Amino acid sequence: MVDLSTDLGFIKLKNPVITASGTFGYGEEFQDFFNLDILGAFVLKGIYKNPRSGNPPPRIHETASGLLNSIGLPGPGAKELQKIVKRIHRLTKTPIIINVCGDTDEEYIEVAEIFDKMDEVTMLELNISCPNIKRGGKCPAQDEKHTYKLVNQIKHNTSKPLIVKLSPNVNDISSIAISAEQAGADCISLVNTFLGMAVDLDSKRPVFKNLFAGLSGPAIKPLALKLVWEAVQSVHIPVIGIGGITSGRDVLEFILTGASAVQIGTINIVEPKASVRIIKEIEDIMKKLNIKNLDEIKGKLKI
Ligand code: SIN
Prior knowledge:
This protein has helices at 78-91, 105-116, 144-157, 173-182, 221-234, 248-257, 266-270, 274-288, and strands spanning 6-7, 12-13, 17-19, 41-43, 60-63, 66-69, 96-100, 123-127, 162-165, 187-190, 194-197, 199-200, 205-206, 212-216, 239-242, 261-264. It is an alpha/beta fold.
């Protein structure tokens, strides 16, 4: 028997596989594909206080080994999501993570407070890293001081464990990770998508109305691993690795690099049952390599 559980300090997950925000709907859409109980946890699509329609189409564009998205965080608003969360909680006891968004710091705090009061919610993930909202503008995770201020305010107004989702579109991931930790983050997750763009030769126009979009998928895995490594070296809180994970082997590579858990994203869109396969692959590889539990390899990369 191998033990897939992982301890984030504030919660022990049955395995390290968490489905990433925006790639797994509100969870209930996937109940016909597999039993949601098998997941370590799942993150719901990012939510603002009020309903939003998101960006105009096209919203996604395939690239070699990757996907560009400019979705723009559409959603039903916090009130409606509260009803959905109650429904999902009746379906599964797998920990539910709310991806908290805001146009202003005040909105972030308000949304965090709303879901902090819900027993059905296990953790909050602060989305300060979406690249698709302000064209050319900075998201909070691209500024150390803003990251500190916002995380600190949310920590003072909420009591649930707080994961802070970081952006790869920065010069120095360590300083942002440290800011989040010093402000009280219980955990950091990285990376959100890399800024990219696509052009249409026929129309001679950019594919996306916002010009830039966020790149995810296998193309970014090596870039994400590097940033996860740097973050792990910089902070003492747990790190959740995200970026192009498609297999059990990928998951174990992130754990070896020091991640305590992972989020899987783009693969859910091409293969809705990917989580089932990936969890089985982790188990098979651990058996084959005689790894009894994840702590045996976590952060044990030999440099
Ligand atoms: C989006 O909805 O634009 C993507 C969300 C994100 O990158 O955080």
